[in-house]
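User: We ran a pulldown and think these components assemble together. Before we commit to crystallization trials, I'd like a predicted model of the whole complex to look at. Sequences follow.
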Amino acid sequence: MTETTTRPIEPSEEKSEDGPPALPECGDSIDSTIFEQILEMDDEEEREFSRSIVYGFFEQAVATFKKMDDGLASGDLSQLSSLGHFLKGSSATLGLTKVKDSCEKIQHYGAKKDDTGTRDEPSDDVCLRRIRDALALVREEYNEVEKVLKRFYDSQPQPSQN
Amino acid sequence: MLEDPAYEQIVRWGDNGDSFVVLENEKFTKAILPKHFKHSNFASFVRQLNKYDFHKVRQNNEENGQSPYGPGAWEFKHPEFQINNKDSLDNIRRKAPASRKPPPVSEEAIQIQQMDLVNVQLNATQQQLQVLQDRYNDLSSHNSAMLQELISVHKRLLNHESVMHQVMAFLSSVDTQIRDQRRHSRVNGTHIFDQSHSHDASAAGMSPQNFSPSDDRQASPLQHAQKLLEDSFTAEEHLEQINELYRQMNGAVSSPPSEQGGRSGVVPMSQAVQPRSTTATNSTIYPRMNGEYQESVYPAGHTNGIDPTTYAEQYPSIPFPIPTTGDLETADSRRQYPTEGRKKSVAVDPGWVRAPQILLVEDDPTCRRIGGKFLYSFKCAIDTAFDGLEAVDKINGGSKYDLILMDIIMPNLDGVSACRTIRNYDSTPIIAMTSNIRNDDINMYFHNGMNDVLPKPFTKEGLLNLLEKHLGHLKEQKTATQTKSPAGSWHSPNQLAGVSPPGAPLADESYVNTMRGHPPHTIDGYPHRRTASEMSGADETVSETSKRQRVYAQPYGNAVVGPMRVPAG
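Assistant: Here's a predicted model for the assembly, 731 residues in total across the polymer chains.
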């Protein structure tokens, strides 16, 4: 029977196989292990499935940022918290680590906690200010991964769209 | 004053010296009162007298109704007011009206306050009562709904049970038939014969311990019914195996079955080569499944049966879901089956007896799609719900699932509440899918009826492990082979759940296994058991394996019991 190796294989090594093409360098913005398993779900060369997921996430993220702006304007902390949680879930699923972490902070701030979610922060103003900062940051982080991912998908064979 | 003769006509001592008499009201008021008081009001003077306990001597006490001092005269008396006894005057005191009056006033105020207080309390109590009443109404309606549900479930179970009995009866009749056939063919196929030998040996060693534990757990009718169901599932697996065996034997002896070739595309020759490792894995995987079964599947419905502490040791590994396992395996699979490497993702087949019905409850479209895709790749039938409310509705609507994957934080109705609600009338295993995986969170999930936790972001491996853990009863034995593949899988951090390396190996090996893995099992009706050392990459896995067996001891004991089945058809 085909012998399997017991040697641990690094994700990067895996990429060099005939597996998913290596993602562009993106440091710790993207957890390649998680993202790769989504790529694995793609059929053949056309990355239709993951592409639609990722682009769906783009739309979702942009819409969520917009809602966060609204929430900041109206000072609706609980709304901001749930938006943070919402985007945290999907970014985590895609392995977008940085975006996920920032969303988590927004979730905590919105819940009137500190950034780790362990201590209470009684001041609404402080929370809102922190969210404003975190939102600016997460937008940057998002733009970064969006660029990387779009470049990645542009480099892939285009799907026969359907 | 009273003795002043100048006033004799106006005011003087009474005749008995024990009273004084005001003879002329008007003069007294105008001439005398202003000298001694700040006012010149006779009525006030009288009032003052009254306060000092002087009392007017009533006129009608007199016989003729006339005052001895003349009409219009006022006579006042006081016990201590006597003409020759000035000492006793000290005893004439104001009656402390001031002190007497205030008390009544403050008492009243206190009473009012008390009344207010009581009223407030009464209101509060009434409100509480109202709340309780509402709650009671809710609960009672809930309860009746639960009862109905319970009754219908009970009926369904009874039906299942009777069906199962019939199936079992049929199967055992078929079994005897098959045994005859097998015995017959064993003589013909040499390698099969060998396998059966080794199989016999290992079966003898392994099976007893498998049986005994499984016999222990028939406490309630529900469990009994579930066991019956499980029996039937496993029985089906055996049927499947027997079918394969049958075909295989036919292939070895006479002509290769066309169905087999078409289905898997694997050449029968390989069968002789691989049975060992295949069966080896079986031995390790079975125990695990059973153990899990006891822990998680049966407790379903008896939520109190879930002991969070049993999961405690798993917690540490939860946060690290996607270890290298996946990488290892997928990488391996790519190497081994380059051409199928891509397809694998779509074609992973954990080998369900039937497609498990999974309800995916998730409000986030990204998670939902990816989760759904993973499940799809595991050959599961998927239904989705946007939030807890929809999930509850689906369950209420009579939808039956083998497993529910439940997000925790969702709009409308969160996962924990949904779980608690569903638990009122349904025991489907519910897995919390969440990134909130602190210990107290997890304990809370378990306390509310969740059966397990799948940390987000979940991975394919994590998900598949979970499915196999909770849906072991839907699996065919052949799935076992998956475990054997990359030795690396044994090092997986999420060992707990960890069974099977999803991914390509499955697809490829599962068919292999379909053909060669089964024959041995079926021959004696026992799965072929081997020690871990026989597995590929066995050396370092031995300890792992034994651990597993300990943890998940005892599986398919009953499954193994009755292998019987007829060639499909």
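Chain A has one domain: 28-37+47-155. That may be worth checking against your pulldown data before setting up trials.

User: Thanks, that helps.
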